[in-house]
Amino acid sequence: MNHFSQEQWIGYLYDEDGGSEIRAHLQSCAECAAFADRLAADKALLDRLAVDVPAREADYTDRVWRSLASQLQPYPSRRRGFFVSWKLVFGLGLAAVAVVLATVAFYSGRLWEKKQDRDAALVDHGPATAQGRENIIVFVLDDHLDRSQRLLAELDDADRAAKDPELRKKAQELLAANRLYRVTTEQAQAQKMAGRDGAHEDDSLRMMLDDLEPVLVELANQPSAPDRRQIVRLRDNMRTNGLLFEIHILRAQERPSTTAHAPEADHAALRNEGKA
Amino acid sequence: MDLNDHSAIRAVLDGNPDAYRAVVVRHSAALFRVAFRITGNEADADEVVQEAFLRGYQRLGSFQFQSSFRTWIYRIAVNCSFDCVQRRSFELADQTVGTAEGDRRPRTELADSSGGPERTLLNEELGQMQSMAMRALTPLERTAFLLRHVEGQSTVEIGAALDIGPSAVKQAVFRAVQKLRQRLGSLRGSI
Questions:
Q1: Which residue of A has its CA nearest to B109?
Q2: Which of B57, B86, B168, B181 is most exposed, with minimal Cβ within 10 Å?
Q3: What does the alpha-carbon distance between residue B149 and residue A13 come to, in Å, rounded to a whole number?
Q4: What is the pTM of this model?
Q5: Minimal-distance CA residue of chain B relative to A179
């Protein structure tokens, strides 16, 4: 019978907490003493099997750096002097405004019909500006999520993905958009938090965009078209199936919000019928 | 430029790829050690070091600043090492021409031969046996064991790196020791 847990034995073996209790017990328990001897012999065996690691040359780290440096793509600069950062912020701002205006123009006919109902809902749910902006962001993002979902689903079939000559290009385009949406989502969330006295907000959308980015970076930065084995390794290492599921859930959660106003819409329709 | 790990990473994320040199210089030796212990082969270990740093650079956006970069890049190197071992085993299985008696171990090229030819051969054999035995472990057991037994990190540090409690770390190390003993126990007394 073993009088101690696995954790306690490891604490004893590596001289961590719990070891003193076992040492005291070994004085009076032959069974545990035999087990302790066996464990010590195992550890000694593993120590003796330790392989001599060959020494590296004096310039080893320089050599490693030289071969790495040419492969490193710079991350987008967040802080490179007033003039450059001003241009970057201005450019991002213009791009964000253009995307928002295009989406608002596309949905303006449908939104105008429900204007009265949306105003009433916004009064109940807090600052109108932040909520309205978030709804627009969700509409715009849905296309990006849809394209990302398709790309991840494509990786599931490694043979097919390896034959797609546009795979890297798709990843590069999605990566540029993903970085823009991350910035926009963070800004919208910050404004919403400011108006809600720090109340907890669901940041699953931002987290999903954060998780999606490394996958897109990995695909976009492949030096050549990835083969089947590279795609399988990417898929397994990045757990793209889990990310695919996350996007699916996120899109499914956002869809019911577009129908949440249905009861109010029914009431509005009844009111309009009454006025006719 | 003398930057600690987190400062270097922030500089990289701010658009300065040269800042990554600081972490490369600081952690190359440790990554080579673990890669060599797993692959048993100097050339493969060099390749693993390159790949680990490259993968780490590409994933810097997801690095959590609450944790240690050293353990984070270490875990990447462990995964790269096992990918390499698996890749080599596929390549060896495809080869139709091996050395004598079906011996298809990859040749080890050691720059430092001060240990003598017998020690060199023994290191190669030990490395291969240890690598094969390590494959019996789960990824968690492998990483926990290497960090505790080889790198000497405490269970608290390992738990913080792997995002599990110290008890889970100790259980993983215990299971690893048991499994390795079962695989390598026939060598007891002969080494």
A1: A54
A2: B86
A3: 10
A4: 0.47
A5: B61
For each of chain B's 191 residues, which pLDDT tens digit applies?
446 899 999 999 999 999 999 999 999 998 998 888 777 789 999 999 999 999 999 999 888 887 788 888 988 888 888 788 778 777 766 654 444 444 444 433 333 344 556 666 666 666 667 767 777 888 778 878 888 888 788 888 788 767 788 889 999 999 998 888 888 766 555 44
Inter-chain contact B17–A213, Cβ cutoff 8 Å? no
What's the gap in Å between the CA of B7 and the closest CA on chain A?
Answer: 14
**C-beta atoms of B49 and A11 within 8 A:** no
Which residue of chain A has the CA closest to B90? A229
Q: Which of B9, B94, B170 would best serve as a mutation to test chain A binding (most A beta carbons within 10 A)?
A: B170
Per DSSP, helices labelled H in B40-154 are 42-58, 69-94, 117-134, 139-145
The percentage of chain A sitting over the pLDDT mark of 90, rounded to a whole number, equals: 10
The HSE-up count of residue B26 (CA atoms within 13 Å, CB side) is 18
Which phi-psi region, left, alpha or beta, contains residue A225 (left: φ > 0; alpha: ψ -120 to 50)? beta
Q: Which residues of A touch B11 (CB under 8 A)?
A: none
Rounded Cα distance between B48 and B73, Å, is 12
User: In the prediction, which pLDDT does A137 show?
Assistant: 63
Cβ within 8 Å of residue A90, ≥6 positions away = none
Chain B residues with CB under 8 Å of A7 CB are: 166-167, 170-171, 174
pLDDT of amino acid A235: 79
Residue A49 to residue B16, Cβ atoms within 8 A: no
The residue length of chain B stands at 191
Helix (H/G/I), strand (E/B), else coil: A225 = coil
End-to-end CA distance of chain B: 46
